[in-house]
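One chain given next:
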Amino acid sequence: MRIVKEINVEEFKVTVFHWNNKYILKYENGWHEITVKISQLDISAESDIDIFLSDPEILWKIKESFEKLNETMATFYSKI
């Protein structure tokens, strides 16, 4: 597994890996992480991954996913 880049995007730390003909984008926010896998065949160049790192709509969806994850974890912790 090769690390392509590590950057901070808004409130996320994003690490981009290349492994097994896939790009793996790991978004981290505090204690949680969301991983997105993209087939190497679905993009024309490695630079296309920057769309996932800069497009406002995609970043908003990732942020919403973190909010839902935080709600889920709050429910979990309220049960224990």
Summary: The longest helix spans residues 56-79. Residues 2-79 form one domain. The chain is about 35% helix and 40% strand. Residues 10 and 70 are 17 Å apart (CA to CA).
